[in-house]
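#onboarding

Welcome to the new folks! Below is a worked example of what a typical request in this channel looks like: someone posts a single protein sequence, and someone else replies with the predicted structure as tokens. Don't worry about understanding the tokens yet, we'll cover that in week two.

Example request:
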Amino acid sequence: MSPGIWQILLVVVLLVLLFGRGKISDLMGDVAKGIKSFKKGISEEDKPAAPETAKSIDHEPAQTVKAGETEKTQAS
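Example response:
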């Protein structure tokens, strides 16, 4: 059983009475903004990212500790 034209009109009239034309208009505007934002995000993913310059980290080589050494000899 599908809804008839009178049932759809009744639901629309009730929505307008409950929420008012202003709130429904604002809601539809927000939905449109969300769809535009979603499409923009999808199109940005398709574009290849700009190549970034290679970054390097400079570091000093670690000092090795011999098995017999203790903390006192390492500190001095």
